[in-house]
Specification:
mainly alpha; 26 helices
Amino acid sequence: MPRARRMILGHVMSGLCSKMNRTKQLPADLMETPLNRCLNTFDITLLGIGHMVGAGIYVLTGTVAREMAGPAIVLSFLLAGLVSLLAALCYAEFGTRVPKAGSAYVYTYVSIGEFWAFVIGWNIILEHMLGAASVARAWSGYVDSMLGNMVANFTMELTGEMHEQLLAKYPDFLAFFVCLSYAVALAAGVKATAMINSILTTVNVAVMALVVVLGFWYASPQNWSLPEQGFMPYGFGGVLAGAATCFYAFVGFDSIATSGEEAKNPSVSIPLATILSLCVVTVGYVLVSAALTLLIPYDEINPVAALPDAFGTRGITWAKYAISTGAICGMTTTLLGSLFALPRCIYAMASDGLLFSCFGKVNTKTQVPLLNLALSGICSALLALLFDLEKLVEFMSIGTLLAYTIVSASVIVLRYRPISVEETVHLAPDTPGTDEEDGDSSSQSSTIDPSSPTSEMIEIALAGRLRPQFRWLEPVLGRCEPGVACSGAVLMFCVLSVAVCFQLESSWDELYHGTWWALGLYGFLLFCLVACVVVISAHHQNTRGLQFKVPFVPYVPALSIFCNIELMVHLSFLTWLRFFIWLSIGMLVYFLYGIHNSKEGELGTSYSMLMSTNEAIRGWGATSTALGGGTKVTVTKIIKGRISRKTAGDRQAIVDDDEDDDS
């Protein structure tokens, strides 16, 4: 009996792991969607800029400069922008692979597996919900400051203060109604939303340019070298802590990837819009933060309304009101961006069966998931009503950084994963007729000459296998299936990065003073990190069908993983605690509903392959079957025995010959 119980338990656990690791199969036509494909590159670029340039620049600048980094906020924004750029390159490559709504959720689903995809999707929902609530709260605070705190005073007289540490000082009814109002506006359709966003973003960018010009015109260089404080009054740790918070200002670029299912030409628009918008926003943030800290000393900055108060202090009253107007426009576009992306992520998860099916419906008239939009607006409004800005911002950063980490890891995994289904070439069956007609039919039906493998076919066959110059690793990695060693190295790199970052946080002083055990420990960990990257780079890549490719893979995605983990380590313990509570709720949803209703469970657990439009092919294995009297010739058989290692005597083939199954 104990043995039988162990066998049953083993079978159940095996089935559970299989379900958690199943990947999403791509449809034959990736461009097919119930959503409205109407956005061009310009629309998507302005959507990304509008989503990023809002509360980040008008609210975070004052908080980070005053309490975290001082004038070195310039470095914080630059560092956060560079880390975001690394992740943005990975998002851009995935945007060309999978032009579907859902962003990092879909990317993880087709590359790593269902469980991690749900984790990412669940956190993206939280990210956009908190993003919308935080911007609504900032929007309300700016309007209130322009009215002399009239709204806050009236609300506290009416309701009194909420004496609870986890909640805001008072309920913000203005932020609540702002969230609901913009959710209603988004129901008009994506094209109308894009037009409103373009107008407001243009005004916002013009105001940012005004801030930079006036700030440098009235700048006082001595504000960067105050007595006993200098440029970095909080040290380099303050710069890193500021960068972790400033990361919030860059989260909008993933809304570009979310719009992939509504782009006219996603393979071109998504990567181009991602890179352009992030570069423009990074330059703008650095210049605005430099102008602010040069205009007045950092310890005199008002965290609530930094830019208008700074210009008001210098007597430039008209600029104060112009900046407040730009701030309202900027935060409006950011709020629209969050409320735009959130319903589409819920729609993507519901369409896959991981969330309740009612959220997978799209209104036929507006081509917008209206139920999701209503739920998003109400939940975001409630968060804005009860929580203050600081708690919302910090809580949001952890989910964003986790999503960026997994997307970067997914790029490496997919680059080195072999084609996981057997690509086949269909040859037309013989048809009755004249000899001449038969000859023409034969010449036209065979699309690939089996005797002459193309470079594309060679790349497919070599993906995930060791390069010839790394043959010395065969005793260690030779027994691994193609792609398995790379996936294991990526996992080990992530684990080691966590260890290194936690050690840097806890024992930096020992390392700085050259303590022997700290030097030895860091030396060993860094050696293991480098070894993981070497193992990955020792294999052949598969770049077939990619119109945009992340440069220097695996180095750029690996650096992105390490930087994201380093920023996560600097977040507070309470942020991690709230994150695990939210994640626990998600696990209940997944294991009680999602894992049993997944659409991939209906299709089986075979892995899908990522290719360009109209090239997804299903199936797994090495069998060759007849179809309608025709013949299937596999790529493996076409190039079988044709590719050899370029060594003396050509002793061993790069593509190992299959066992002769037909004999």
